[in-house]
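User: Quick sanity check before I run a bigger batch. Here is a single chain. Can you write out its predicted 3D structure?
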Amino acid sequence: MQRFILGLGFAALTLITVACSGTAASPGTPSADPSTPAGDEIVIVAKDLQFSPTTVEVPAGEPVTIVLDNQEAAPHNIAIKDAAGTVVFKGEIVTSTQITNNVPALAAGPYEFWCEIHPDMKGTLTAG
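Assistant: Done. Predicted structure follows.
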């Protein structure tokens, strides 16, 4: 009887693992190419202590949604500063997850985005 119960538990665990690791895209799943917006959002991947893509364009004067897809256990966030060095946005620090950042409208021009935990992780955001 105990073997039967253990077997059932193992089978249930296997089914759950398979169901949770599927590769089918669901609505709202970011596109495979991180530089391509998924709907109205921009996806930036954090992996191997780097951002991808490192160059992003957004419309000036409109709020934008940036999804940080942190694909590693190291903590990361996205912060944005203008050309004068003034921080205009700070996202939440996360590990091994995706987080949606609602960035307020930015004036036209260049901005730098970076990870506050790993300042060498940088990119350029252009509002135009």
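Residues 11 and 17 are 10 Å apart (CA to CA).

User: Great, the batch can go ahead then.
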